[in-house]
Structures are given as C-alpha cells and as structure tokens.
Amino acid sequence: MSEEDDIILAELDDEELVQQMFDDLYDGLKEEIEEAVTILLDRGWAPYDILTKALVGGMTIVGADFRDGILFVPEVLLAANAMKGGMAILKPLLAETGAPRVGKMVIGTVKGDIHDIGKNLVSMMMEGAGFEVVDLGINNPVENYLNALETEGPDILGMSALLTTTMPYMKVVIDTMVEQGIRDDYIVLVGGAPLNEEFSRAIGADAYCRDAAVAVETAKDWVGRKHNSQKSA
Ligand code: B1M
User: Fold this and answer.
1) Please, are residues 102 and 223 in contact by the beta-carbon 8 Å criterion?
2) Mutational pocket test of ligand 1: of 51, 115, 122, 131, the residue with most ligand atoms within 8 Å of the beta carbon
C-alpha cells in the first residue's frame, strides 16, 4: 500500500484537507476532490469559500506549473476534470440562494478557445445571485452570440477568453453588433485571465470582470443602471 492510500481525508483538519485538495487537484484525482468538497460542506464551509479557497486556489498552482512547463496538457485536463467534479457538487448550492431574478445573461467562450472553467464559475455565481444564464459553451463564432441575443433577449452578453490569441475575437463580436445597430441594446461584459480594463475599453465592451464575484457585482450594477434609465426615459 502506498503512502497516498493511507490518507483518510475525513481525518485531516481543515487546513490539511485544503492542502491535500491542492495535491489531489494537481494529480487530477476527481473522486478525492468530490469527497473533500463534501467533507468541507459537512463541516459547515460556505460553498463559495470551498470554490475560491480550495478549488480555484489549487487551480492557480496547476496554472503556474503549466506555464513553467512542469505540467502538460493531459495533466491539466485531468486537473480541470477534477475541478469540474467539485464544481458540480457546489453548483446547486450556489444557485440555491432564493434570490429573485435580477436579469438574464448569455455567456460563451470565444471562437478558437476551449477554456471553460472560469466561464462556468461565472455562470454558477451569476445563477446564485439570481440571474438567468444561457451558456453557449466554448469556441463560439460571432453567429452563435448573435443568434442567442436574438432568441434569448438577455440584458447582458458575457464573453470569456483565456488566450492572448483569442481575446481579439471579442472585438469581432462587438464590431458586428455595432454594424447591425444592436450594440447598445445589451450590456457587454468580458473576462478571462489575459484581459484587463484597458483592453475592455479598447474593444468597446462595457466592463472587464476580474473574477466571478466582480462579474456578479458588475452585472448587478449595470442591470440596475439600465432599468433606472428605462424608468426615467
Ligand atoms: Co490553457 N492556457 N491552453 N488549458 N490553461 C492557459 C490560459 C495559459 C495562461 C497557461 C500558461 O501558459 N500559463 C496559456 C495561455 C497563454 C497565453 O495565451 N498567453 C494556455 C495555453 C497556452 C493553452 C494551449 C494553447 C496549450 C497547448 O495546447 N499548447 C491550449 C489552448 C486550447 C484552446 O483553447 N484552443 C490550452 C489548453 C488547456 C486545457 C484544455 C488543457 C485546459 C482547459 C480545460 C477547460 O477549461 N475545460 C487548460 C487550462 C486548465 C489552463 C489554465 C491552467 C487554467 C485556466 C483555468 O481554468 N483557471 C491556464 C493558466 C491560468 O489561467 N493560470 C491556462 C481557473 C479559472 C477559475 O480562472 O479561467 O481565469 P479563469 O476565470 C476567472 C476570471 O478570468 C474571470 O472569472 C473567472 C472566475 O473567477 N472570467 C470571467 C473568466 N471568464 C469570464 C467571463 C466573464 C467574466 C469573468 O464574462 C462576463
């Protein structure tokens, strides 16, 4: 029996368990991550804290080693899969706040980009805050966004990009909206690790959201402004 097999997650204190989750995420151990998430919930941890402190914390380590060439795509895919296992347990709990519906958002990762963990997290947090979310998934060409805007009639269009090579595609979507005369009908929020405020302004988005919590606050703020301006018009 290896040393790993000896670890009983339920016997670790909170700090040790979170450290172990970092290791298990790194090793792509989905079942262990799911078990640890359940243990932390049983111990009274808030779903949001588990998400940010344990899962996102662990993914940050994976990201650094991926950047430094210590981990490669297959390992990172396993880590992402383990993270998704944990997120699936938290999703209904985050969405369960009973908040009244505050608005609707269509969101998707842009064309050429298959990263979806951050986008999924934003969707979960937005649902938890009372937004209805239509998730278009990954690798979306401009037509997907435009069709969804027409059929779903959201308040917000959200776009995610994790690659410096795909983030310019957000401008393609916004420029097409301008050409079609529909840009100002929607609040356009963008996010993803390589973006920043300046980029968001340069492509004509309404706001850049650094993380899922900021996305929720920004969305509430902009939807509130939109409704107020409609009332006074
Ligand atoms: Co990718 N990858 N990857 N990858 N990957 C990065 C992004 C990278 C920074 C890694 C690195 O080198 N350090 C690097 C990009 C470098 C660059 O562009 N400058 C990179 C690369 C190079 C690649 C490939 C090209 C590798 C290759 O094939 N050689 C390839 C590209 C594939 C493609 O898309 N065409 C690739 C592939 C993959 C995997 C498939 C293995 C996997 C994705 C699995 C999946 O998503 N299902 C993967 C992963 C997991 C990562 C890292 C390690 C982690 C990303 C992540 O999930 N973070 C990443 C390194 C990193 O970011 N540190 C990396 C956790 C997540 C919670 O954070 O996504 O930032 P994040 O989302 C945050 C905020 O950004 C914000 O809120 C979220 C929650 O707080 N946010 C929004 C995000 N979207 C938003 C939308 C909004 C609002 C806020 O709308 C309103």
Assistant:
1) yes
2) 115
